[in-house]
């Protein structure tokens, strides 16, 4: 099965085909994802380097020789991201992610590479799909790692925010449909190659100026083809809180690709309502790194979906945090405990407030959209719809052809990603969060903080 290539000019997307657009997705991890190499071996393979007399590594490729840095995009715990253009005849725009260690004063402090950085390098160097962000190359220079990606002009968080200014105006239904289809298509490729993303949210869904969706930021991604190796043992907390699946909130030690599909459901709802559907407050871990029960976030889900029941979710009673869930439900009183799901009411209100057409199937997500959303936001992960099943859903089959350019037919213009020239020297930027940088720790976090005040 194949999918029509979403070229830069935009073309029809087939709802009856689900495999990858670039090299076909394969279920054989040994063929497509030979990711068992050590960090050192990965560095040797990915970076053409040589030993210097001082015992360090001197790269044959220097970042500033190949790329002209335009400006600073954002920073976070991993490092910093810059926008660049190619030099010496190399065309195109690029996003360069610089990992720590970084320069502190006049001394380069080598603290090693994070597990997140190693995973992202290993995975991105093997994956190739039109709906997954493209890694151009990895450069090692002065004990710093630079990942060079294709540059994308937008992300879904930016687009959603644009539709709230100066007043709320709905994202066109056809655009939502195309975004969701491309997102699911990229996710099917990842899952077919045994990769869980584990941090899907609007800020990590990138969009090119041609309306092509790219799944980005694979720093939390993991292979899941070793069923006896608990994913929980390596990362006790995954997925940004508003998009975290109920099985994760309830402390599941073994989880599946269904956690990514729950996040897609949350993103779908946010594209329609222009605000997070489950906007809870995160309880932080204590000094002993004990993972707390996310009571407030679970309450936000219950308010719309009702209390999960063991009759509909047999595995519920075996969840480590099941006693906490019972306590939460009982504290709200019998009437709240027996309250049914209000997702349909939330959805109908969302369509009304968004002004979606009540007559044209192309102008509204309609009943098909609600059915897909309800299957994505299914409590029981074993019953939750898969990426492959979702791509075959009537929501994509009905309502006419979809364009590979999600912006097709939209007359408005979205602002490009904010790039500042305050700190465009990729050599000397201090470690994120330090006073020397003089810049916010993460522009995406800043945007989320701004939305929290709404």
Automatic annotation (TrEMBL):
GO biological process, one term: protein destabilization
Classification via Gene3D superfamilies: Phosphorylase Kinase, domain 1, Transferase(Phosphotransferase) domain 1
GO cellular component annotations of the record: CKM complex; mediator complex
Compositional bias of kind Basic and acidic residues: 417-426
Organism name: Elaphomyces granulatus
Keyword Transport annotated: no
CDD domains reported for this sequence: STKc_CDK8_like (cd07842)
InterPro entries, per the entry: CDK, Kinase-like_dom_sf, Prot_kinase_dom, Ser/Thr_kinase_AS
Protein name: Serine/threonine-protein kinase SSN3
Pfam family, one: Pkinase
EC class: transferase
Chain intervals for the UniProt region annotation (Disordered): 1-29, 417-454
Gene Ontology MF terms: ATP binding; cyclin-dependent protein serine/threonine kinase activity; metal ion binding; RNA polymerase II CTD heptapeptide repeat kinase activity
């Amino acid at each position: 099965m194949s999918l029509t290539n979403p070229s830069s000019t935009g073309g029809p997307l087939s709802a009856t085909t689900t495999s990858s657009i670039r090299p076909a997705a394969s279920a054989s991890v040994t063929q497509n994802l030979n990711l068992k190499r050590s960090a050192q071996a990965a560095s040797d393979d990915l970076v053409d380097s040589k030993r210097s007399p001082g015992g360090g590594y001197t790269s044959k490729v220097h970042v500033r020789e190949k790329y002209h840095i335009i400006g600073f995009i954002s920073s976070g715990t991993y490092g910093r991201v810059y926008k660049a253009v190619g030099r010496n005849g190399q065309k195109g725009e690029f996003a360069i992610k610089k990992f720590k260690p970084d320069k502190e004063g006049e001394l380069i402090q080598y603290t090693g590479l994070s597990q997140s950085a190693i995973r992202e390098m290993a995975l991105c160097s093997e994956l190739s799909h039109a709906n997954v962000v493209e890694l151009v190359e990895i450069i090692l220079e002065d004990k710093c790692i630079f990942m060079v990606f294709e540059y994308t002009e937008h992300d879904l968080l930016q687009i959603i925010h644009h539709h709230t200014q100066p007043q709320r105006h709905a994202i066109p239904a056809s655009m939502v449909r195309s975004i969701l289809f491309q997102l699911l298509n990229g996710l099917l490729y990842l899952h077919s190659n045994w990769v869980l993303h584990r941090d899907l949210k609007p800020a990590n869904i990138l969009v090119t100026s041609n309306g092509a969706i790219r799944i980005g930021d694979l720093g939390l991604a993991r292979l899941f083809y070793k069923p006896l190796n608990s994913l929980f043992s390596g990362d006790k907390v995954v997925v940004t809180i508003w998009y975290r699946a109920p099985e994760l909130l309830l402390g599941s030690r073994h989880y599946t690709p269904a956690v990514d599909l729950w996040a897609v459901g949350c993103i779908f709802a946010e594209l329609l309502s222009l605000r997070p559907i489950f906007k809870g407050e995160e309880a932080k871990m204590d000094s002993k790194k004990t993972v707390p029960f996310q009571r407030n976030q679970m309450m936000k889900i219950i308010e719309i979906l009702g209390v999960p029941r063991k009759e509909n979710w047999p595995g519920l009673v075996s969840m480590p945090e099941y006693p906490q869930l019972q306590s939460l439900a009982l504290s709200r009183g019998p009437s709240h405990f027996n309250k049914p799901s209000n997702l349909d009411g939330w959805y109908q209100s969302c369509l009304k407030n968004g002004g979606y057409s009540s007559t044209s199937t192309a102008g509204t997500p309609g009943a098909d959209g609600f059915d897909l959303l309800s299957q994505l936001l299914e409590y029981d992960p074993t019953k939750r719809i898969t990426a492959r099943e979702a791509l075959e859903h009537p929501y994509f089959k009905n309502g006419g052809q979809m364009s590979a350019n999600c912006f097709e037919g939209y007359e408005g213009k979205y602002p490009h990603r904010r790039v500042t020239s305050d700190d465009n020297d990729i050599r000397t930027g201090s470690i994120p969060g330090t006073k020397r940088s003089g810049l916010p720790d993460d522009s995406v976090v800043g945007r989320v903080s701004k939305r929290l005040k709404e």
